[in-house]
Design goal:
With 444 residues, the protein is an all-alpha fold. Helix content is 76%, strand content 0%. It has helices at residues 11-22, 25-38, 41-68, 72-80, 85-117, 126-137, 142-159, 162-189, 194-202, 211-224, 231-236, 245-273, 288-294, 299-333, 337-357, 372-400, 402-409, 419-443. Helix 5 (85-117) crosses helix 7. It is globular. The N and C termini lie far apart (46 Å). The chain binds phenylalanine.
């Protein structure tokens, strides 16, 4: 096949890159605010769903990628045959749409590093933080400039290529991220009054669980593990044959989950400790948290660290989204990486502009009652990703089927533990579970 295909330089490099894709705004921003909104049982439901759906689907995508050595379109053609490459195209479209609004929110995190460092957020009360946030995101130009800068940074990494760009960046940034996150979590749980928040986060409260809790948890699993759109598939297509695939998959899933857990520990107890509301929803990160830092000893430093952490996490995720799109043109159309990356980045940025403007000057133009940014978010993560995940489960479960287990068995030390259970989940449990969320999100 492709003897010259680039590979990851080491197992550590692959795991850092794949964890870099998984660990992102989803962990640092989405997970804590959802756990805050839904209360204690969210964590345990999330963990259960990660183990059942998350791990099975990561292994499924890894098998498709590594066995075919291709990005999504080629992988489905080689592994599943006629018709299935359309699923790869869906994945590329999903990556494209997600990236377009992801760079906008990522741009905010970069802007907040500056705001924090300059002391602009030192004032303290959530009302003031609300005003600052709104004043920033409704500006017509500045947020677009930040999104553009973020797009350029992501493109620069992707142009560097798999091993020299993505792997090198991830190996540097991911350990940094862990250190910062641990510092922040320690600060949070040692604040006086953190105990209430700790038990709110960790002790299950089943009375607060509704259907919406389950829907939020499963879509969080998908988004957080970069599933359903071929990011994990694409990264694993550069995985050398000698790597132990099931072990790599469990490592990536464990790291992603650990980061979500630490992010929850870094945020929820701190919010309780300063007596603010933890159920603010999406604005928890940009409005509640700066107010928390303002009231915390040394809060400016921890605040700057926090937004640096967010920007790092977002960068390695944005890189993986861009790589899904770029690798298609490189693999299937033999195009050169650098020009394709520049072109894709420009197109993604162009779609990001209306998302950014929809926070301010275009906020009156809603579509189905949603802003453009919310709509892009809903279409990609609420519809396209679950559909992608459902079809990938069906594809690996029924079409690739036992051949997928064979692909692992060719290496005696890489046999998939519980292979039968894995296929059963892909064939029945995952499709039914995902179809159910899709239904819920449409009814909702
Ligand atoms: N997993 C990333 C996060 O948690 C987002 C992402 C989704 C990245 C899909 C790549 C693919 O923020």
């Amino acid at each position: 096949m492709s003897g010259t295909r680039e590979n990851w330089g080491s197992r550590f490099g692959f795991v850092m890159a794949a964890a870099g894709s998984a660990v992102g705004l989803g962990n640092m921003w989405g997970f804590p605010y959802k756990a805050g909104e839904h209360g204690g049982a969210f964590l345990i439901i999330y963990l259960a769903l990660v183990m059942v759906f998350g791990l099975s689907l990561v292994v499924a995508e890894f098998v498709l990628g590594r066995a075919s050595q291709r990005s999504p379109v080629g992988a489905f053609r080689i592994m599943a045959g006629r018709g299935w490459p359309a699923l790869g195209v869906l994945g590329i479209a999903t990556a494209f749409v997600i990236l377009s609004f992801y760079i906008v929110v990522a741009g905010w995190t970069v802007a907040y590093i500056g705001l924090m460092a300059r002391g602009a957020l030192a004032g303290g009360q959530p009302e003031a933080m609300n005003d600052i946030f709104n004043a920033f995101v409704t500006r017509p130009i500045a947020p677009i400039v930040y999104a553009g800068g973020f797009m350029i940074a992501s493109a620069a990494v992707v142009i560097g290529g798999v091993s020299r760009g993505i792997e090198r960046t991830s190996k540097l940034l991911m350990p940094m991220l862990f250190v910062i996150l641990i510092v922040l979590a320690l600060r949070s749980v040692t604040l006086p009054g953190a105990g209430v928040g700790l038990s709110y986060f960790l002790v299950p409260d089943w009375s607060a669980v509704t259907g919406a809790t389950w829907t939020a948890a499963i879509s969080q699993v998908f988004f957080s593990l970069s599933l359903g759109m071929g990011a994990m598939l694409t990264y694993s297509s550069y995985m050398p044959r000698e790597h132990n695939l099931p072990r790599n998959a469990s490592l990536v899933v464990t790291l992603d989950t650990l980061v979500a857990l630490l992010a929850g520990l870094a945020i929820i107890p701190a919010v309780f400790a300063v007596g603010l509301q933890v159920d603010a929803g999406p604005s928890l990160t940009f409005i509640t948290l700066p107010a928390v830092f303002a009231q915390m000893p040394g809060g400016v430093y921890f605040g700057v660290l926090f937004f640096i952490l967010l920007a790092i996490a977002a960068l390695t995720s944005a890189v993986s989204l861009l790589e899904v799109v770029v690798s298609y043109f490189v693999d299937e159309h033999n195009m050169r990486r650098a020009p394709v990356t520049v072109l894709c980045a420009l197109l993604v940025f162009a779609l990001g502009v209306p998302s950014s403007l929809s926070m301010g000057v275009w906020s009156d133009n809603t579509i189905f009652g949603q802003s453009f940014l919310d709509l892009m978010n809903f279409i990609s993560t609420g519809v396209m990703m679950p559909i992608g995940g459902l079809l990938i489960a069906l594809c690996v479960g029924w079409v690739v089927g036992p051949k997928a287990i064979e692909a692992l068995k060719s290496h005696p030390d890489q046999a998939m533990p519980l292979a039968g259970l894995w296929l059963f989940i892909l064939r029945f449990v995952a499709p039914v579970g995902i179809a159910w969320i899709l239904l819920q999100s449409f009814i909702g």
